[in-house]
């Protein structure tokens, strides 16, 4: 048996015993399904267990918690599968696990103690990743500048003042950053930035060639892009090495399965839903958690020498999952925000792909609401509830009504995909 599997098997056995002792949710699952936990010894034995779904997590949220709340160090939330975001609780050791994960990720992306990272994502708002980046940089002995999202002026001022070597950013922000530099006479080619860790949106096609966004950035700016894919539930990241042929699994932190629509494991190179079992988690460990993300999985040895599995870009989402500006959103969460505003009697949510193939959300609203005060109020509401704010477009009430109630459908078209 390969050493990696032996190590994972030891951690898996400890995990199974731990959730059997401490997780109300898994105690119930084991009892209901009549599972003999001693029969789960290796990753291959996981197939005996049912999957854990996003719905389970939303419905039985606190039943997953394995320690008293007094032992929780950091309280985070996912962006919500339904109307309410799901709580995620990190014990102190989980915060440390996050730091370890990110340190390994940075090293995989050729980072070292000589680097200075510029963090262009939020570190607060109950968001896990920003915190992880900060701790990871610290752990490898690098420096980090917490600029946060947006603010092109501050980004450039910070780049010129502190000379970061690596940016951590949502990639679709980079063209905006470059546009700003061009219109303000900033010589970005001389900036000293050598690479960008790209989060939240893909920069590659499934064959690893750059997608439109990846091409746009690299054709304009001589930087190396490293894609990284992660989620709150995993508390770990799949980060690309210098070869750029998919994000590497960290086998110490996760057991990865990739399954087809019939829940069978897909072959090397195949497309399927990403399923993870978290290793070494104290607060909210998960067994066979279905992420809903669809990726190609690669089991062959990478040219960098690592033999860990790799995931290609997220090419699709189960059901109606929308990944918008690096945040995962489901339409009901958008409806919930709109439904909170009593002035809004009619609306339609339009989900489309932008020129880079990423999701865009536009809310169609009646013309009479088009005031600066209303727009600002709705923008802030979206920011506070979903962390991101969709575009708004105003059309006449007649036109909107026609679009929502057209055809003889039983339900109005609150949501359309174009
Ligand atoms: Zn590699």
Descriptive notes:
The protein is of the alpha/beta class. Helix content is 31%, strand content 24%. It has helices at 3-22, 24-33, 54-59, 92-108, 128-139, 152-162, 174-183, 212-220, 331-340, 372-386, 397-405, and strands at residues 72-77, 87-91, 116-119, 143-146, 166-169, 195-199, 224-231, 236-240, 247-248, 254-259, 271-278, 289-298, 310-311, 316-317, 322-324, 327-329, 348-353, 359-366, 391-395, 415-417. The strands form four sheets. Strands 3, 4, 5, 6, 7, 8, 9, 10, 11, 12, 13 and 14 form a twelve-stranded mixed beta sheet that branches. Strands 19-18-17-20 form a four-stranded mixed beta sheet. The mean pLDDT is 91. Bound molecules: zinc ion (ZN). Zinc ion is lined by residues 241, 243, 248, 302, 304, 306.
How would the blueprint of this fold be written?
Layout lengths: L2 H20 L1 H10 L20 H6 L12 E6 L9 E5 H17 L7 E4 L8 H12 L3 E4 L5 H11 L3 E4 L4 H10 L11 E5 L12 H9 L3 E8 L4 E5 L6 E2 L5 E6 L11 E8 L10 E10 L11 E2 L4 E2 L4 E3 L2 E3 L1 H10 L7 E6 L5 E8 L5 H15 L4 E5 L1 H9 L9 E3 L1
Parallel strand pairs: 3-4, 3-5, 5-6, 6-7, 17-20, 18-19
Antiparallel strand pairs: 1-2, 7-8, 8-9, 9-13, 10-11, 11-12, 12-13, 12-14, 15-16, 17-18
This protein binds zinc ion.
The site of zinc ion (ZN) has 6 residues, from loops.
User: Uncertain regions: pLDDT < 50 for 5+ in a row?
Assistant: none
Secondary-structure class: alpha/beta
**Associated small molecules:** zinc ion
Helical percent range?
Answer: 25-40%
Rg for CA atoms: 22 Å
Determine the number of helices (DSSP H or I, runs of at least 4 residues): 11
Q: Compute the separation of the termini in Å.
A: 49 Å
Q: What composes the largest sheet?
A: 12 strands, mixed
Number of strands: 20
Overall geometric form: globular
Q: Approximately how much beta-strand content do the residues carry?
A: 15-25%
Give the rounded overall mean pLDDT. Answer: 91
